[in-house]
Automatic annotation (TrEMBL):
Protein's organism: Paenibacillus turicensis
Keyword Metal-binding set for record: yes
Name of the protein in its database record: Malate dehydrogenase (Oxaloacetate-decarboxylating)
EC number: 1.1.1.38
Domain Malic enzyme NAD-binding, first and last residues per copy: 237-459
Alphabetic keyword roster: Metal-binding, Oxidoreductase
Protein family (similarity comment): Belongs to the malic enzymes family.
Cofactor: Mg(2+); Mn(2+)
Length: 468
């Protein structure tokens, strides 16, 4: 892999990466996958960043696009040209405020602002419910973070978290035409976050909590749901859980298995893993085992993490013990929200026939899909360059659109289950296959299907203010 030899097509990728990352090793694996070779030509090192030209040789030009796309998905670095393009896209932020009605005359000004606006204020003062009709509350969501668990970057602070929250706001607008406001808080104090969000709540029709570290995220969401009269939704937990359930419902159809009969392993017992598990139990799962670095979570063990003790009470009914490689034996389903390459080929071979594997660690899954493919019936990841991408963007625009439409006071379990079933229903029985269990993020049917199902569930569970 040191020299580019015996290949008819050679191209150069200029990359930048963190000097302490395994970025180059991952590029080597990608090039090997495409039966290529590579040569590194170091350019410079600046403040811990390495800049290199990588000459890549392959048999034909067709493989270049696949290699470039795979490199673009890697964490720890970036293609320089792509990096510059990304930076330009973010200049000045990605969202802006625009006017619904232009203000061009004094008459316009008197209606939009004083004195005309006073009449509107008095209407709302007499009946606060009219805020939904007469202000942005009807269609506006706050995207709130403290910057403590941003993507795979960890605690990078509120300013550095802002591009992600802006991106989330952009997705709300693009996919559901919901106006979302990114709000990054300069505090990690649980009580202070709760207090600030409660004080901001009158402006918004819903609160989307984002990238707040575990276990504080549990308490923050629980308290805000109890103390506010608008939906509060932690997407890292519930958005992931809803899309996983949607994909699993269809994967089980493909394999002709039932959710109440299969053995499910959920690897990674943080916010996402616990929420996924609860969602699957709500949908009818009976034999589900949560696994973390310490092994299977079991009620016969006392943990320092209280949320694990609570989790243990509702999972692992047969009290199985041991590490992942032990408890995965005989499992029908593996769901990973954990770390790269922790699932081995022999682990997959020890699963039941027609195994289902959702390896969702990003950017590198728990197992390389190419290694798992011969041994599983359905394979899903969190990546866009493989079939069956489990992506939160399938969920949060539609579930908020339905909740806002119904003017719901909460997003409850009934609404979450309705959202999951709505997503899975987009794929017809005729379309369903091993490589198509979940719709694409750009499928225009998804948001409207979720909106309708969620609004109906809100009405039926009696938390909707608007019932028609």
């Amino acid at each position: 892999m040191n020299k580019v030899i015996d290949h008819s097509h050679v191209f150069t990728v200029q990359v930048q990466y963190n000097s302490d990352s395994n970025y180059i090793d991952n590029i080597k694996k990608i090039v090997e996958k495409y039966q290529g070779s590579m040569e590194q030509v170091q350019v410079k090192i600046e403040e811990g960043l390495v800049f290199e030209n990588i000459n890549i040789g392959i048999e034909d030009k067709e493989k270049q696009q696949g290699i470039e796309k795979a490199i673009a998905q890697l964490g720890g670095g970036d293609i320089v040209e792509r990096f510059q393009e990304i930076m330009k896209l973010h200049e000045g932020g990605k969202v802006e405020v625009t006017l619904k009605h232009p203000i061009v005359t004094k008459d316009d000004l008197s209606k939009v602002y004083t004195p005309g606006v006073a009449k509107v204020c008095l209407e709302i003062a007499r009946d606060e419910q009219k805020a939904y009709d007469l202000t942005i509350k009807k269609n506006t969501v706050a995207v709130v973070s403290d910057g403590t668990a941003v993507l795979g970057l960890g605690d990078i602070g509120p300013k550095a978290a802002m591009p992600v929250m802006e991106g989330k706001a952009a997705l709300f607008k693009q996919f559901a035409d919901i106006d979302a406001v990114p709000i990054c808080l300069d505090t990690k104090d649980t009580e202070e976050i709760i207090s600030i969000v409660k004080a901001l709540a009158p402006t918004f029709g819903g609160i989307n909590l984002e990238d707040i570290s575990s276990p504080r995220c549990f308490e923050i969401e629980k308290r805000l749901r109890a103390e506010l009269d608008i939906p509060v939704f932690h997407d890292d937990q519930h958005g992931t859980a809803i899309v996983v359930l949607a994909g699993l419902l269809n994967a089980l159809k493909v394999c002709n298995k039932k959710i109440n009969e299969v053995k499910i392993i959920v690897n990674g017992c943080g916010a996402a893993g616990i929420s996924i598990s609860k969602m699957l139990l709500e949908a009818g799962a009976t034999n589900l085992i949560g696994v973390d670095r310490e092994g299977a979570i079991s009620s016969n063990i006392q943990y320092d993490k209280e949320h694990w003790n609570e989790f243990a009470k509702i999972t692992n009914p047969n009290q199985e013990n041991g590490l992942l490689s032990e408890v995965i034996k005989g499992a029908d389903v593996f769901i990973g929200v954990s770390a790269p390459n922790i699932l081995k080929v022999e682990d997959v071979q020890n699963m039941n026939k027609d195994a289902i594997v959702f390896a969702m660690a990003n950017p590198t899954p728990e197992i390389d899909p190419a290694l798992a493919a011969p041994h599983v019936r359905v394979m899903a990841t969190g990546r866009s360059d493989y079939p069956n991408q489990i992506n939160n963007v399938l969920c949060f625009p539609g579930i908020f659109k339905g909740a806002l439409y119904a003017q719901a006071s909460d997003i409850n379990n009934e609404m979450k289950l309705a959202a999951a079933k709505a997503i899975s229903s987009v794929i017809t029985d005729e379309e369903l296959s091993e490589t198509y269990i979940i719709p694409d993020a750009f499928d225009t049917r998804v948001v409207e299907r979720i909106k309708t199902a969620v609004a109906e569930a809100a009405v039926q569970s009696k938390i909707a203010r608007k019932t028609n």
